[in-house]
Amino acid sequence: MNLRDMLRGLLVRLYARRVEGHLDHAQVPKHIGVIMDGNRRWAKAAGSSTVHGHRAGAEKIEEFLGWCTETDVEVVTLWLLSTDNFDRPQEELVPLLGIIEDVVRTLAADGRWRVHHVGTPDLLPGPMQTTLKEAEEATAHVDGILVNVAIGYGGRQEIADAVRSMITDAHDKGTSMEELAESVSVDLIGRHLYTGDQPDPDLVIRTSGEQRLSGFMLWQTAHSEYYFCEVFWPAFRKVDFLRALRDYAARHRRYGG
After folding, report:
1. Is the dihedral of CA 33, 127, 194, 81 positive or negative?
2. Which residues are tagged catalytic?
């Protein structure tokens, strides 16, 4: 590292401390959703392989959760694998699935966070289903940040699964279709989502400069604030995170328009 890079790094750290010093913890979002985008483009820019990009993105997760712990965030939803990702070439998908399994094991072993899977388990390989179940059981007692790992997740699929769950539940209770139709409400559907007992995201962060949700938590983000960051996920820094929190705190949230 040359002197110029050292000075730049020092200035960024000093700036981050200044932003953090002015951060009002009462205005920090309680639930943050993260669309961790840009692993492949980061790798390409660095002249590395796609797999290396995914590994670098995975390594960023613990650091990010550490920042969340410092700022009193209570729930974090990490989108690790979408339903669309299964269309990727096997030479990319298979290593990616292995990297994600390692992430889940690492989060569970850390001891600071409670792991919860959101997504369609049936889409995932058997060993990954087992890993997710073991992580949830091993961390069920943890009184730390609830970390939703969105794996095999799609927003439309979640809503479809919620409706299916609602119908199945009604059938099991002997409720007629007419009675169910009369009882359907926003709250009822919401209780059958993957995150049914959780608060909706206050803030959604997407890295890499893309400004769209791509199907992320379509139901839950109806009133969320969005922060789009130009930085690729592996290069996401604490100062970028603090800027997102500062931007969120400066907004006046208006529900209904």
Report:
1. positive
2. 37, 85
